[in-house]
Prior knowledge:
Elements: E1 5-6, E2 9-15, E3 18-23, E4 26-33, H1 38-48, E5 61-62, E6 64-70, E7 75-82, E8 101-105, E9 108-116, H2 121-137, E10 142-150, E11 161-168
Parallel strand pairs: 1-5
Antiparallel strand pairs: 2-3, 3-9, 4-7, 4-8, 6-7, 6-10, 9-11, 10-11
Amino acid sequence: MAQTEKQKYIILDKLDEIEIREYEPVIYATVSTNNDSKSLFRILAGYIFGSNETNQKIAMTAPVHMQKINSDVEQKYTMRFVMPSKYSLDDLSKPNDPRIIMEKVSKKKYAAITYSGYNNQIKFNTNSLKLIEILDDNNISHFGNPIYLGYDAPYKIWGRKNDVLIELSE
Length: 170
């Protein structure tokens, strides 16, 4: 089985159960919806499996990023696939699905907390609150909604890795 490329970051600091990470610039294929997150994976998987202008096949990477954003107006679900590091935006075929946005993101800093097992809403919420509490207790400025990172295929049983990220203010 081929090794899955993982998104690159460096650990700048460790504090209690969290890491302060700096993520390298990256290209994401992103899709959002107002309904739920179940169809998002299928849309992005279609893109990397060849549903694009040149039928380009793109390797799966890890992690998959998922975020739920609640506002006064709507609830929005976003999923991002990290594109393999060998590609530039010009190397990637244009998606056939207009809901997919290709974007290059600059270097960013996040606080992260890691947990194991299968993810669920309770684990995500518990770890999100713990992460925010540690940041607040240490006067570390942050913003935005927590981001879930899933690293493993659904059929992997042992050694699963999950992260919650919160973006840090400079």
